[in-house]
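chain below, 193 aa
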Amino acid sequence: YKENEINNLVKAKILFDYLSKITTKTIKIQQVDERLLQITIPKSCFEINLLDDSSFPILDFSFSNEKKIELSNLVLNNISQKIKPFTSPYSIEQANSPSTRISLNSIDTNLMECISSDGKRIAYYKFNYNGDQVKFTIENKAIELGLQILSTSKDENLTILLTDKDYFLKSENTLIKFPIFNTPFPNLSTVIL
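prediction:
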């Protein structure tokens, strides 16, 4: 982006619905008036109503004490293929269900384990890892989002930034925030291996 900087608030779903249909390399985005944003491509023009920016929460993206995790495309694919099938399919009704989550734990200076359960089965995957010592739970949809982010980015790894309350999926031009789940999942102390 080279011209005047714009700072507008729009509904993300509407914006991404429009942008997902655009196949051209050049997109012109301009503010028409105080309530309207216009997206122009060579053969089409879309208009989106602007929202009042006072309705948007103020977020702090300074990341001063976060832990950093780097996951390669290969590791994300392995988690998706070996672990995610053992989680329940994500739905609005199950948004707070532990069965839609995957636990990531650094168990050694160079290993991380990945555990999930749908309530009937347990899946376990271990991979080489060099980074901060962490133990947290990630939603299964975050793994798929991570793969989508890497497919459209020049980055080879997906960065996960872990703070006290949230974790962020980060790449060259994307930052997605998720809440941290503080309950231990899965509770393997009751499982006989």
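The first strand starts at residue 28 and ends at 33. Helices lie at 12-20, 73-82, 140-151.
thats it, cya
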